[in-house]
Inverse folding.
């Protein structure tokens, strides 16, 4: 076991990140070959953007890499060193993410119905709540900080949050590299915020996920060689939601309850808008269509690459606002830099839409 020092604690996070990234980058081509031989490919249709069949089980590599990074840290004794009192919560998020991965993989392989997916997702999220991954309270400013206990509302609110984020990430996975990039950026921001707020357990999970997502982006950015599928999207969505629950939202700060929503604003707002617009038109919220932000940008004549980069800049901008709100040193400077980047990418999107 490594020495229990502050600098070594940071090494645990680096180990999780690097192991996850390298395992994903090594295993993705292997998964791609398996997918091609077994015929597990995503075929083009009216809703799909790609024109050639592409392997859709890349989530296996993300799952393998992230869990490998976390298991290495566990083997080194890092779970207990980083945060002994949250050891059970780390396992709760990890096991819950594993279950969600297999739900998504089953959907990739067998095309489950929306109702059956939602039912199983709710059951697994309830299990995670039972294991300690739960939203127990929220903080409001009123003189001194006041924590309001959720009581019996803890279960439904936690399930809605976990299941909602899983599906929000899955829904933005409609463009080469989009979900992997957005989740990678969000995970890095959560890693930084969790470390700043002295939540090393949550930071460890974020580090592993960040490595996995960014490693997969090497093969998933346009033109994509492989898709993560529902397995990868479910796994990453649950990990992000779990990190928010056991780490950031548990911090005794006024802004803590808002930070996860700010960091994950892009997938949350995209899903909310799509559901609302479908319901207002009397359609099922589960009915696939082309109402998502990336679809609208493509319809405006924006290229896949610029669309992905623009949404990355939106995610980075939201993350920089979270850094500033959290009180992170020079957070305002980072927010200003991200704002300038967003202005530039917005101008590029506007210019290209005018040309087309």
């Amino acid at each position: 076991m490594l020495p229990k020092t502050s600098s070594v604690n940071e090494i645990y996070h680096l180990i999780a990140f690097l192991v996850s990234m390298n395992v994903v980058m090594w295993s993705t081509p292997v998964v791609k070959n398996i997918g091609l031989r077994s015929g597990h490919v995503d075929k083009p249709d009216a809703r799909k953007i790609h024109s050639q069949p592409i392997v859709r089980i890349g989530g296996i590599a993300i799952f393998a890499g992230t869990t490998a990074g976390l298991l290495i840290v566990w083997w080194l004794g890092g779970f207990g060193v980083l945060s002994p009192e949250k050891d059970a919560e780390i396992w709760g998020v990890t096991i819950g993410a594993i279950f969600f991965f297999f739900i998504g993989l089953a959907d990739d392989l067998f095309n489950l119905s929306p109702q059956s997916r939602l039912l199983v997702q709710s059951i697994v999220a309830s299990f995670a709540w039972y294991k300690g991954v739960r939203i127990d309270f929220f903080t409001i400013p009123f003189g001194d900080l006041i924590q309001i206990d959720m009581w019996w509302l803890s279960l439904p609110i936690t399930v809605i949050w976990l299941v909602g984020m899983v599906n929000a990430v899955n829904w933005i996975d409609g463009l080469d590299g989009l979900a992997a990039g957005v989740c990678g950026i969000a995970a890095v921001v959560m890693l930084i915020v969790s470390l700043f707020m002295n939540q090393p357990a949550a930071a460890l999970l974020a580090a592993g996920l960040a490595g996995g997502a960014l490693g997969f982006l090497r093969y998933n950015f346009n033109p994509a060689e492989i898709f993560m599928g529902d397995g990868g999207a479910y796994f990453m969505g649950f990990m992000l939601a779990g990190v928010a629950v056991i780490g950031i939202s548990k911090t005794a700060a006024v802004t803590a309850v808002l930070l996860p929503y700010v960091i994950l604003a892009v997938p949350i707002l995209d899903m909310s808008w799509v559901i609302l617009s479908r319901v207002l038109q009397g359609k099922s919220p589960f009915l696939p269509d082309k109402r998502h932000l990336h679809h609208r940008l493509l319809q405006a004549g924006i290229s896949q690459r610029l669309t992905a980069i623009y949404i990355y800049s939106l995610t980075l901008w939201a993350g920089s606002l979270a850094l500033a709100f959290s009180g992170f040193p020079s957070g305002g400077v980072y927010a200003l830099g991200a704002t300038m980047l967003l202005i530039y990418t917005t101008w590029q999107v506007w210019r290209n839409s005018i040309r087309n």
